[in-house]
From TrEMBL, chain A:
GO MF annotation, one: metal ion binding
Keyword NADP: no
Coiled coil: none
Pfam families according to UniProt: Molybdop_Fe4S4, Molybdopterin, Molydop_binding
Keyword annotations of the record: 4Fe-4S, Iron, Iron-sulfur, Metal-binding, Oxidoreductase
UniProt protein name: Formate dehydrogenase
Taxonomy, superkingdom: Bacteria
GO cellular component terms, semicolon-separated: cell envelope
Region (Disordered): 1-35
Location within or outside the cell: Cell envelope
Cofactor: [4Fe-4S] cluster
Lineage: Bacteria, Pseudomonadati, Pseudomonadota, Alphaproteobacteria, Hyphomicrobiales
InterPro entries: Asp_de-COase-like_dom_sf, MoPterin_dinucl-bd_dom, Mopterin_OxRdtase, Mopterin_OxRdtase_4Fe-4S_dom
TrEMBL record, chain B:
Keywords, sorted A to Z: Membrane, Transmembrane, Transmembrane helix
GO molecular function, one term: dimethyl sulfoxide reductase activity
Pfam families tied to this protein: DmsC
Organism: Mesorhizobium waimense
Phylogenetic lineage: Bacteria, Pseudomonadati, Pseudomonadota, Alphaproteobacteria, Hyphomicrobiales
Protein name listed in UniProt: Dimethyl sulfoxide reductase anchor subunit
TrEMBL record, chain C:
PANTHER family: PROTEIN NRFC, PROTEIN NRFC HOMOLOG
The keyword 4Fe-4S is annotated on this UniProt entry: yes
Annotated keywords: 4Fe-4S, Iron, Iron-sulfur, Metal-binding
Any one GO molecular-function label of the UniProt entry: 4 iron, 4 sulfur cluster binding
Segments forming domain 4Fe-4S ferredoxin-type: 12-31, 71-103, 105-134
Source species: Mesorhizobium waimense
Protein's recorded name: 4Fe-4S dicluster domain-containing protein
Pfam families hit by this protein: Fer4_11 (PF13247), Fer4_2 (PF12797)
C-alpha cells in the first residue's frame, strides 16, 4: 500500500487512512466498498460567501454527497456544516418553480405563474420606459451576491447610479477602514500568516467570510501552540477556543485598541523603521488653523507629499528612499507651520484619556488586563521576531537578505463593523498593526491579491451626470478622495437613492442598501419607479425595523398606487421578501448554474497568490427557473444596453457562461484570469480563450497562481510583487502603497465643513462632518448608546448567525434547521439574577423601537451588560416551505424588529439612517434593550406575529418524512 | 426513562402472571389446592393470560415485531433473549400442568413435576426480567441490588394476592395463602421503601464531568446539539417533577401496599362473601398500584445520557 | 453474535480534540450526508420542515460551560459512538443484530436482524444509538466502515467523513490498539481521556481535554512594560532612536 504525498488541510498522520486499507475478512457481509458516485463534478460551494471548492458526487442522477476539494486554495479539502448540507438546500421544498406575477395585494403571497417570455416583456417594457426618461428611477440592489462586477456594470450601462450590493449593511466599515488606511482589509481580503504567527488577536469575529480558512488557521495555531486572544462580548465558536477571552463591552473596541497603542507608545514599543518605510508617519501636515489647506499634507510643485529631513534639515519628498525623515517636531516651510503625522499620532494617543485606567470601565476590561495584553503584544512583536531566509527587493531597489517579521496578527470582522463607530474602530486596529510593524510581514496580517491597492483605490463613484439612454461614465461604486467626488447636487442633496457618497455617508464605498426601501417610500431624495433586488431578504432579516419596512413596501397613496410602484425580485426560494414582489424571477441553485468568482470583485485568492473560480451546472434544473445572471444579461440585450448587444442590436452573449468567457472589461482583462490567450497560457491579461471554462472545469473549477517566495511579503513595497500586480491589472502602476495613519481625504471633508472648497456641506451637516471626518481614528460612543436613557435600556443586544447557517438560508434546510430551529436570548447569570429571571423564562425584549418576545438561556460566557441571540432563526409563517407549527415562526424570534433603521432626531430634527456617519455602514450592534419577564399567559410563543403568506401556485406542502439516501442504498443493493 | 405503557404493563402483568403460575404450579401440583375445573381454568387462564398479554404488549415496544422470533437466539449474552427463551420454555411445563390439573384434575407425580418446572420457569423468567434492568449500568436506579429481589418479591406479592382472591372467590380460601399474601405485601412495601431510600441517597459517580471528560468544577449544558427533542430525550430523557413523583409514590404506597394490607387484614374478620370481595378488591387495587409503581420505576430512572443534555 | 470478541485485531476509533473544536457542526452534517446514503441508509428525518422535527444523526455536537477556580470556558463537545471495547449495547442485544467486529473493533448493527427493542440504546451510557422510527430499527455510527476500506474512493479519502470534513483538524482517526500509531501517540501526548471510565465500557474513542491557558504560548513570559525613561518621554525616545 502506498500513499501519495498527503494533500489537503486534514493530512496529519493522525488523520490519514489506515496504512492498509484493504477490508479485513470479517465475514459479516458488510459491503465495505459500495460504489459512491457515477461521476464527480468539481465546482464552487455557495452555501455561504466562503467560496470553497467542492466535489459533488452524482449517483443515479442525484446528488449523493458533497465533500471538500483537497486541491482548492480556500478550503483544502475541508468542508463546513453548511457545505455538507447543500443537498438539502438543493432539494428544498421552498424552491420557486416558475416566474410569478402578483395577483393579490402586495405582501399576500398571491401570485400566478407566467412564462419567462411574459416576465421578460413586463420587465423590459417597464425598464425601457425608465431608461428613456430618468434612469435613476431604477434602483437595482443585490444581496448575497458574488457577481457584482456584472451587476454593477449592468447598472452602469443602464445608466442608473442606484446600484449596490449588500456591503453597506455588512462590511463597508471594514472595507473602507482598511482601504483608506492600508490599501487592503480584513473580511476575506486578507488573512493572518497562519503558519508563522505567534500571537493572534481576533476582534469581533463570529463565523464569517473566510470561514474555512479561519478554521483551518485556528487549527494550525492550536496545534502549534500560538496564543489566540479573542476580543468579543460572546464566548462562542472561535472565541471558545481562545487562550484569552476578553469579554469586551460592545462598541468599545476602538477605545481598547487606543489603550493598547497608548501603552505601547509610552513604553517605546513601536516599529519606527517600519513606520518610516511603509507609512505616511513622516509626512508633514500643515498646521494653520483657519487656512483652506490646514491639515493637508505639505506638497512640492509636483504634488508629492513632503517630509522633513532631520539630517539635511530641509523638506524632502516623503517617498525619497534616501531621506532621513523626522517623525517628531514642528517645522516651518515657506512660513507655514507643519508637523509630521507621527507627532499628531503621538499627541493624540499619549493623552491620558486613552490610558488603560481611563478606558477600563467603559470597555468592561480591567486595566491590568489591558496592560498585560500590551506587554504580550510588545514581547512577541519585538522579542520574538522571525526571519525567513529569503532575499527580496523593495520598490526602491534595496535588497534585503531575509524577510523579517513581527509575528503578531489580527483579524476583525462584524463586531467592529456593525457599529456607528466602526469605521474609526477599524482604522484604530490597522493603526495598531502598523505601529507594531506587522502588516504583510511574516507572522503578521497578510494581504490577499489583488490587495494591497492604493489608499484609497482609484476609481471614483460614477453618477454625477445621469442622462436618459446613457451609460454612467464609470462604475456606480468607487472611492472618494474629497468633497468634489461626492454624488450630491448643488444644494447638497444626494444623487443616489440610498444617499451613498452624500454628506450623510461620504465614504460609502459599498452603498447603503438598508436605506433604499425607506428612501424610496418617502421619496427622499426622490421617488423611484422600480426597485429590482436579487437574493436579499429585505422584508425580513436583512432589514432593520422589519415591521415598518413591511409597511413601507405595502404603503399606497390616496389613489391606491404603491409608493414604491414596482418591485422585481429574484430569488431561488420562497423567502419572506418574495411575497412583496410584483414580478418574481426564480433563480437556480448553485449546483445548476454558471458563476464566476472573479478578481474583478471577490476572488478566492490567498496571501500566497491570486486565484479565481467558477461554478458550472452539475445537475440540470428540474423546473422552469433560470440563473439570475443569465436573466440579467438577456434583459440587458432586450433593453439594448451598450455592451450587451452587438452593432446589429442582437444579443452579445448567450447567457452568463458566454459572458464569463467573452466579456472584456478592458482589453485582455475579463471576468476570469486563468488560461487566457488563444492557447490558454496567459494569466491575468490576454485574449479571450474559448476553452477557458473547460480548462477551469478540468482543473477542479478554479485557477490559482502561486507567488515566488520573494513576492509573498511586504507586498506594499515589494518590487517583484508590485510589478506582477501592475501586469495583472491589480494596481495602475507599480508604485509602493503607503499606509495612511493620517487620512488626508478625510481632512478635505473637514475643511469643507469649515467653509473651504467648492463643494461644502449644508449648514446643518457641518458639525457632523467636522466631528466624524477626523483624519486620525478616534472613539465615540455608538449613536444609540449616546441617545437613549441608559437607565431605561441598560443592556447591549447583539446577534450572530450560528456557524452552521452563516450566510446560508438555513431554516429551509432540513438538516441545518434541526440544529437550530428556535433561538434563545442568551443572558448572563448575574444579569438575570438581578432581573429576577430564571433559565427558560419568556421575556419581552424592548428597545426604543419596539418589543419582541423570546425565551432566555442563562450563560456565563458573555459580557454581563450584553444579551445576544442567534440571528434570523425566527421566520414568518408561510415562508421557506416550513409548516405552520415550525418552531421558527412560533418560538424563534427576530431581533431586527426592534433595531431602528434611523437614529433619534438630532437638534435640527433630522433623523439619519442608523449607520456609521463616515461610511453609512448599518449599525446593527448599537442596539440597546431592556428585558422583562412576560406574563404567564404570554409565555411559550413569540411576538410580534404576522399574517401567514399564501403559498405560490403548485407549491406542495412540506413532506412529513424525509428518507434522503434510501434510494442510493436500494439501487446499490438491487445491483448486487 | 420514558415509561412506555407497553413496557409498564408488560412487566407488571407478567410479574403477576408468573407469580400466580408459580404458586398454582407448586400448590396445585402438590395437591394443596385441590383440582377444580373452574378454579383451575380461571386461575391458569389468569396466569397464562397475564403472561401472554404482557408478552404481547411488550412486542408493542418493538420497531419490527415481525422479527421478534430472532430474540431467542442470543441467550448466551442477553438477558432479554434469556427472558424470551425462559418465557417460552415455561409455557411447556405450564401447559402440561394446566391441562392435566384443570382438565383432568390430576395432581402429584409428573403433574407435580410439571407444576414445579412451571414454577421454576416462572421464577427464572422473572429473574431474567429483573436482570434486564439490573444489568443496565447507565441507569443507577436500576443497576442496584434492589432491582432483582424487587422483581421477585413483587411477582410473588401480586401472584399470591391474586391466588388468594381466586381461592376466596371460589369459597376455598386458605388462611396460609391469605397470611402469605399479607406478609409478602408487607415485605414488598418494605422493599419498595428501602429501594426508594437507597435510590434517593445513592451517590452516583457518573456526572457531567465524567460524561464529558472535563475535570473539576461544574459542567453546565449550554446548547443541545439540536434545539428540539430527539429520540434520546424522548426515550431516556423523561423527567418527572419531584412534587409529582412524591405524589405518585404516595399513590403507589396506598394502592399497591397499604390498601391491600388493610383489605387483606379485613378478610380475616369479615364473613365469607365479604372476605372474598375484599380479597378480590385487594388484588385489583394492588395490580393497579403496581402499574403506578412500575410507571415510577421508569419515570424515576435517570439514564446517563441525560447528563449530556443537562437534565 | 452478541458475545464480544475476546480480542480485536485493531481498535479503530476517533480522537476528538476539545481544545480545538469550535462547534461548527461540520462533522455533524458531513456524517449525516455520507451516512444517509451509506451503509445504514437512510438517516430518516421525521417532520423535517415542521414543529416536531426529529432526525437520526450519528454525531451530535453539544456545548457546555465549564467553570473551575481557574475561570470559565465554553467547550464544544462532539458526541458519537465510542466503539467501546466492552460495549453492553452489544451484549444486551437479543437478536445478534448488534455486534463488535473482531477485525477492527467497530461496533455495528445488522439491520436485518434488528427487532427495534431499543434495549441497546438503554445500555449505552453515551447516547450513541439512534432509533429510526420509520424503519423500526436502531442505527448508529459505523465509523464509516463503508469509507475507510472503500476501493471506490481514492485511497486518501478512506477516512471517516467527520474527520475529512473537520475544518479545525479537531478530529483524528486510527488504530488506538496500536501504541505506536499516530492517534495513540497524540492521546499519550495530550493526556486523552475516556468518557465515563467508571462505567467500565472501555471506550475506544478518546477526548483530548482543553489545555490549561497558562500552558500556552511564548507570550506568557512577557514582562510588564515600563515607560521609556529617556528625556522628553516617548517623543524623546523616538528622536534618540532615529539619530542612532
Amino acid at each position: 500500500m502506498s500513499h501519495g504525498a498527503p494533500r489537503g488541510a486534514n493530512c496529519a498522520p493522525s488523520q490519514r487512512p489506515l496504512a492498509d486499507t484493504r477490508a479485513p475478512d470479517e465475514g459479516d457481509g458488510v459491503d465495505t466498498s459500495p460504489s459512491v458516485s457515477d461521476r464527480i463534478a468539481k465546482t464552487t460551494c455557495y452555501m455561504c460567501a466562503c467560496r470553497c471548492g467542492i466535489d459533488v458526487h452524482i449517483k443515479d442522477g442525484k446528488v449523493r454527497y458533497i465533500n471538500g476539494n483537497k486541491d482548492h486554495p480556500v478550503n483544502r479539502g475541508v468542508i463546513c456544516g453548511k457545505g455538507s448540507s447543500g443537498i438539502m438546500q438543493h432539494y428544498s421544498p421552498a424552491r420557486l418553480k416558475k416566474p410569478l406575477l402578483r395577483t393579490g395585494p402586495r405582501g399576500s403571497g398571491e401570485f400566478r405563474e407566467i412564462e419567462w417570455e411574459e416576465a421578460f416583456s413586463i420587465a423590459t417594457e417597464r425598464l425601457s420606459a425608465i431608461r428613456r426618461t430618468d434612469p435613476k428611477k431604477l434602483a437595482f440592489f443585490t444581496g448575497r451576491d458574488q457577481s457584482q462586477s456584472l451587476t454593477g456594470w449592468w447598472a452602469s450601462q443602464f445608466g442608473t447610479p442606484n446600484f449596490a450590493a449588500h456591503g453597506g449593511f455588512c462590511s463597508v466599515n471594514m472595507a473602507a477602514g482598511g482601504l483608506y488606511t492600508i490599501g487592503g482589509s480584513f473580511w476575506e481580503f486578507g488573512e493572518p500568516d497562519w503558519d508563522n504567527t505567534k500571537y493572534f488577536m481576533l476582534f469581533g469575529v463570529a463565523e464569517d467570510h473566510d470561514s474555512n480558512p479561519i478554521k483551518i488557521g485556528l487549527g494550525k495555531l492550536k496545534a502549534r501552540g500560538a496564543k489566540v486572544v479573542s476580543i468579543n462580548p460572546c464566548r462562542t465558536g472561535y472565541n471558545a477556543i481562545a487562550d484569552d477571552w476578553i469579554g469586551i463591552r460592545p462598541g468599545t473596541d476602538g477605545l481598547f485598541v487606543f489603550a493598547l497603542i497608548h501603552e505601547l507608545m509610552k513604553a517605546g514599543r513601536v516599529d519606527l523603521d517600519y513606520l518610516l518605510r511603509y507609512t505616511n508617519a513622516h509626512t508633514l501636515v500643515i498646521q494653520e488653523p483657519g487656512a483652506a489647506d490646514d491639515g493637508l499634507f505639505v506638497r512640492d510643485d509636483k504634488g508629492n507629499p513632503l517630509a522633513w529631513d532631520r539630517v539635511a534639515k530641509t523638506p524632502i519628498n516623503a517617498a525619497d528612499p534616501n531621506a532621513k525623515p523626522a517623525l517628531t517636531g514642528s517645522f516651518t516651510i515657506d512660513g507655514r507651520r507643519c508637523v509630521p503625522v507621527f507627532q499628531l499620532v503621538a499627541d493624540r494617543y499619549l493623552d491620558e484619556s486613552y490610558s488603560p485606567d481611563a478606558v477600563a470601565e467603559r470597555c468592561g476590561i480591567p486595566a491590568d488586563t489591558i496592560r498585560r495584553i500590551t506587554a504580550e503584544l510588545a514581547h512577541v512583536a519585538f522579542e520574538q521576531t522571525i526571519e525567513l531566509p529569503v532575499a527580496w527587493t523593495d520598490w526602491a531597489g534595496r535588497r534585503h537578505e531575509t524577510i523579517k517579521g513581527r509575528p503578531v496578527s489580527m483579524h476583525a470582522m462584524r463586531g467592529i463593523s456593525a457599529h456607528s463607530n466602526g469605521f474609526h474602530s477599524c482604522r484604530a486596529i490597522h493603526l495598531l498593526q502598523v505601529l507594531l510593524g506587522t502588516v504583510d510581514v511574516p507572522g503578521g496580517f497578510r494581504f490577499k491579491p489583488p490587495y494591497p491597492r492604493p489608499t484609497p483605490p482609484g476609481p471614483k463613484p460614477a453618477g454625477k451626470n445621469v442622462q436618459p439612454m446613457t451609460p454612467l461614465e464609470g462604475m456606480p461604486l468607487g472611492f472618494v478622495c474629497g468633497p468634489d467626488d461626492l454624488l450630491v447636487d448643488e444644494a447638497g442633496t444626494p444623487i443616489r437613492i440610498d444617499k451613498a457618497y452624500s454628506w450623510d455617508a461620504p465614504l460609502a464605498a459599498h452603498g447603503l442598501m438598508h436605506t433604499v426601501i425607506r428612501n424610496a417610500w418617502a421619496g427622499d431624495p426622490y421617488r423611484i419607479d422600480t426597485l429590482m433586488m436579487y437574493m436579499s431578504n429585505m422584508a425580513w432579516n436583512s432589514s432593520m425595523n422589519t415591521v415598518e419596512t413591511i409597511a413601507m413596501l405595502t404603503d399606497a397613496d390616496e389613489a391606491g398606487n404603491y409608493k414604491i410602484p414596482f418591485i422585481i425580485y429574484s430569488d431561488a426560494y420562497y423567502s419572506e421578501t418574495v411575497p412583496f414582489a410584483d414580478l418574481v424571477l426564480p433563480d437556480t441553485t448553485y449546483l445548476e448554474r454558471h458563476d464566476c468568482i472573479s478578481l474583478l470583485d471577490r476572488p478566492i485568492s490567498h496571501a500566497d497568490g491570486p486565484g479565481d473560480a467558477i461554478r458550472h451546472p452539475v445537475v440540470e434544473p428540474d423546473r422552469d427557473v433560470r440563473p439570475f445572471q443569465s436573466v440579467l444579461i438577456e434583459l440587458g440585450a432586450r433593453l439594448g444596453l451598450p455592451g450587451f448587444v452587438d452593432d446589429d442590436g442582437s444579443a452579445k452573449y448567450r447567457g452568463y457562461a458566454d459572458y464569463i468567457v467573452n466579456h472584456e472589461r478592458t482589453p485582455g482583462i475579463g471576468p476570469l484570469a486563468g488560461w487566457r490567450g488563444k492557447d490558454g497560457t496567459a494569466i491575468g491579461s490576454g485574449a479571450v480563450n474559448p476553452d477557458q471554462l473547460q480548462r477551469y472545469i478540468d482543473n477542479g473549477g478554479f485557477w490559482h497562481h502561486d507567488f515566488s517566495a520573494d513576492q509573498r511579503y511586504y507586498k506594499m513595497a515589494n518590487r517583484s510583487y508590485l510589478g506582477f500586480a501592475e501586469q495583472m491589472g491589480f494596481i495602475p502602476k507599480a508604485e509602493p502603497i503607503v499606509f495612511q495613519l493620517y487620512s488626508e481625504p478625510m481632512q478635505r471633508f473637514r475643511l469643507a465643513a469649515r467653509g473651504h472648497g467648492r463643494v461644502q456641506p449644508p449648514e446643518a451637516e457641518r458639525s457632523r462632518i467636522e466631528t466624524y471626518m477626523d483624519p486620525l481614528p478616534f472613539w465615540y460612543a455608538p449613536f444609540e448608546e449616546a441617545a437613549v436613557d441608559l437607565q431605561k435600556y441598560p443592556l447591549h443586544a447583539l446577534t450572530q448567525r450560528p456557524m452552521h447557517m452563516y450566510h446560508s438560508w438555513g431554516s429551509q434546510n432540513a438538516w441545518l434547521r434541526q440544529i437550530t430551529s428556535q433561538n434563545r436570548l442568551f443572558v448572563h447569570h448575574q444579569t438575570a439574577a438581578g432581573l429576577g429571571l430564571a433559565d427558560d423564562d419568556w421575556v419581552w425584549i424592548e428597545s426604543i423601537n419596539g418589543r419582541v418576545k423570546g425565551q432566555i438561556k442563562l450563560v456565563d460566557g458573555v459580557n454581563a451588560d450584553t444579551v445576544w441571540t442567534w440571528n434570523a432563526i425566527g421566520k414568518r409563517r408561510g415562508s421557506w416551505g416550513l409548516k405552520d407549527d415550525a418552531a421558527e415562526s412560533n418560538r424563534g424570534f427576530l431581533l431586527n424588529h426592534i433595531i431602528g433603521d434611523q437614529t433619534s432626531a438630532d437638534a435640527n430634527g433630522k433623523r439619519y439612517s442608523n449607520s456609521d456617519p463616515v461610511t453609512g455602514q448599518a449599525a446593527w450592534f448599537d442596539l440597546r434593550v431592556r428585558i422583562a419577564k412576560c406574563m404567564a399567559q404570554e409565555a411559550g410563543f413569540t411576538e410580534p406575529q404576522f399574517e401567514r403568506f399564501h403559498q405560490p401556485p403548485r407549491f406542495e406542502p412540506a413532506p412529513d418524512k424525509l428518507s434522503f439516501g434510501v434510494e442510493f442504498r436500494r439501487n446499490r443493493e438491487a445491483t448486487e | 426513562m420514558h415509561p412506555a405503557f407497553s413496557v409498564v404493563f408488560f412487566t407488571t402483568a407478567t410479574g403477576a402472571g408468573y407469580g400466580l403460575l408459580a404458586l398454582l404450579g407448586v400448590l396445585g401440583g402438590l395437591g394443596f389446592i385441590p383440582p377444580d375445573f373452574w378454579l383451575g381454568l380461571i386461575g391458569m387462564g389468569l396466569a397464562l393470560g397475564l403472561i401472554a398479554a404482557g408478552l404481547l404488549s411488550s412486542t408493542g415496544h418493538l420497531g419490527r415485531p415481525e422479527r421478534a422470533w430472532r430474540a431467542f437466539s442470543q441467550w448466551r449474552s442477553s438477558w432479554l433473549s434469556r427472558e424470551g427463551v425462559a418465557s417460552v420454555l415455561t409455557f411447556i411445563p405450564a401447559g402440561l400442568f394446566g391441562i392435566s390439573w384443570v382438565f383432568f384434575a390430576r395432581t402429584g407425580s409428573w403433574v407435580a413435576i410439571a407444576g414445579l418446572l412451571a414454577a421454576i420457569g416462572a421464577v427464572v423468567t422473572v429473574c431474567t426480567t429483573g436482570m434486564i434492568y439490573a444489568s443496565l449500568k447507565p441507569i443507577a436506579q436500576w443497576h442496584s441490588r434492589y432491582t432483582l429481589p424487587g422483581y421477585l418479591i413483587f411477582s410473588a406479592m401480586t401472584g399470591s394476592t391474586l391466588l388468594n382472591a381466586l381461592l376466596q372467590g371460589f369459597g376455598v380460601g386458605m388462611r396460609t395463602v391469605l397470611v402469605a399474601s399479607l406478609l409478602v405485601t408487607l415485605l414488598g412495601w418494605g422493599w419498595k421503601l428501602a429501594t426508594w431510600r437507597y435510590n434517593d441517597r445513592q451517590e452516583i459517580p457518573t456526572n457531567a464531568n465524567t460524561a464529558t471528560g472535563l475535570a473539576g468544577g461544574t459542567v453546565r449544558s449550554l446548547e443541545w446539539p439540536h434545539t428540539e427533542e430527539n429520540y434520546l430525550l424522548k426515550e431516556m430523557g423523561f423527567r418527572i417533577a419531584r412534587k409529582h413523583g412524591a405524589k405518585l409514590r404516595l399513590i403507589t404506597q396506598v394502592s399497591a401496599f397499604a390498601l391491600p394490607v388493610l383489605l387483606l387484614a379485613a378478610a380475616f374478620v369479615l364473613p365469607k362473601p365479604f372476605a372474598a370481595v375484599v380479597c378480590v378488591l385487594a388484588a385489583t387495587v394492588q395490580f393497579a398500584g403496581m402499574l403506578v409503581e412500575r410507571w415510577l420505576f421508569f419515570a424515576e430512572a435517570k439514564h446517563t445520557v441525560t447528563l449530556y443534555y443537562g437534565r | 453474535m452478541t458475545c464480544l470478541p475476546a480480542h480485536t485485531d485493531k481498535r479503530l476509533g476517533l480522537v476528538i480534540d476539545l481544545d480545538t473544536c469550535v462547534g461548527c457542526q461540520a462533522c455533524v452534517t458531513a456524517c449525516k450526508e455520507w451516512n444517509t446514503g451509506g451503509h445504514m441508509a437512510p438517516l430518516t428525518d421525521i417532520d423535517p420542515y415542521g414543529g416536531n422535527v426529529d432526525g437520526v444523526w450519528f454525531n451530535r455536537v453539544h456545548s457546555y460551560e465549564h467553570t473551575t477556580e481557574m475561570g470559565g470556558r465554553t467547550v464544544n463537545f462532539p458526541r458519537s459512538c465510542l466503539h467501546c471495547e466492552t460495549p453492553a449495547c452489544v451484549t444486551v442485544c437479543p437478536t445478534g443484530a448488534s455486534y463488535k467486529r473482531a477485525s477492527d473493533g467497530i461496533v455495528l448493527i445488522d439491520e436485518d436482524k434488528c427487532i427495534g427493542c431499543k434495549l441497546c440504546s438503554w445500555a449505552c451510557p453515551y447516547g450513541a444509538r439512534e432509533f429510526d422510527t420509520d424503519v423500526g430499527v436502531m442505527k448508529k455510527c459505523t465509523l464509516c466502515v463503508d469509507r475507510i476500506y472503500n476501493d471506490n474512493l481514492a485511497e486518501e479519502d478512506r477516512v471517516p467523513a467527520c474527520v475529512a470534513a473537520c475544518p479545525t483538524s479537531a478530529r483524528h482517526f486510527g488504530d488506538l490498539g496500536d501504541p505506536s500509531s499516530a492517534v495513540s501517540q497524540l492521546v499519550a501526548e495530550r493526556g486523552g481521556v475516556d468518557l465515563m471510565p467508571e462505567m467500565g465500557y472501555h471506550p475506544t474513542n478518546k477526548y483530548l481535554p482543553p489545555r490549561a491557558h497558562t500552558q500556552r504560548a511564548a507570550s506568557v513570559a512577557a514582562p510588564a512594560l515600563e515607560p521609556v525613561r529617556a528625556e522628553g518621554g516617548f517623543l524623546g525616545w523616538v528622536d534618540r532612536m532615529l539619530s542612532n
